[in-house]
Write a structure and sequence with these properties.
With about 230 residues, this protein is of the alpha/beta class. Helix content is about 30%, strand content about 30%. Strands 2-1-3-4-9-8-7-5-6 form a nine-stranded mixed β-sheet, with helices on both faces.
Length: about 230
């Protein structure tokens, strides 16, 4: 399977998603949309990964490539490609499907558990509770026809599945110790004193076992998704 990954800023790459692609024998191509790299035609890939970034979906004036990317994501979904979005990527998917994306009630940065939604499809191997990394201030509504999969205390909608081919994840299951260190170094100014914001030392002290469990769940969900 050929996978195209859209990257929005230098310090937020595919993380462990690249390892999933490698270990499953998939071909992964990364395109830096923020550098105005050309977007290949939909016939060139089977799955689209849409990564995170510090911008929000309405900053077209500041990031002119956003408007084109929104249309690109919408077309990929219409073409029945597998589409997986993380954080900003999940919000772009929600927007493409007609759902509202807005400022959340809480900024959520750090290691906080998500819980499986009662409407989460039985086929999706998401445990009742999972420790994950968050870094977001915006949130999305669940698009019409999509199934919510998870929530947290700070954010009602942590993900959804649409037509068994489109997976949106507000949280960062793809995070690795290396990618978290890059994210903190670039965005440390966001680590203010708030209920759902942890400091850098606390985040970096998370044990390897948390990453390993999170990665196992992510890989299992992706394996189910692409087997549909």
């Amino acid at each position: 399977m050929k996978i195209l990954c859209l990257k929005h800023i230098a310090f937020e790459g595919p993380g462990s998603l690249a390892l999933w692609a490698l270990t499953r024998g998939h071909e992964l191509e990364v395109t830096a949309v923020y550098q105005n790299q050309p977007l290949p035609g939909p016939e060139t890939f089977d799955a689209l990964l849409v990564m995170g970034g510090p911008m929000n979906i309405n900053e077209d004036a500041t990031y002119p490539w956003l408007a084109k990317e929104k249309s690109y994501v919408r077309d990929a979904i219409a073409a029945s490609k597998y589409v997986i979005g993380v954080c900003l990527g999940a919000q772009l998917i929600a927007d493409a499907l007609g759902a509202t994306v807005s400022k959340g009630a809480n900024t959520e940065i750090g290691w906080f558990p998500i819980r499986r939604s009662t409407d989460c499809p039985d086929s999706l191997p998401l445990p009742d509770e999972l420790g994950v990394l968050h870094w977001h201030g915006d949130t999305f509504e669940i698009p019409e026809g999509a199934q919510p999969i998870a929530f947290s205390l700070a954010c009602e909608n942590q993900g959804f599945l649409y037509q068994e081919r489109v997976l949106a994840l507000q949280c960062h299951l793809e995070m690795t110790p290396q990618s978290l260190a890059l994210l903190i170094a670039a965005s440390r100014n966001e680590l203010v004193n708030a209920r759902y914001i942890q400091d850098a030392d606390r985040m970096l002290a998370e044990p390897d076992s948390t990453y390993e469990h999170m990665q196992t769940v992510l890989f299992a969900m992706l394996d189910v998704l692409v087997a549909q």
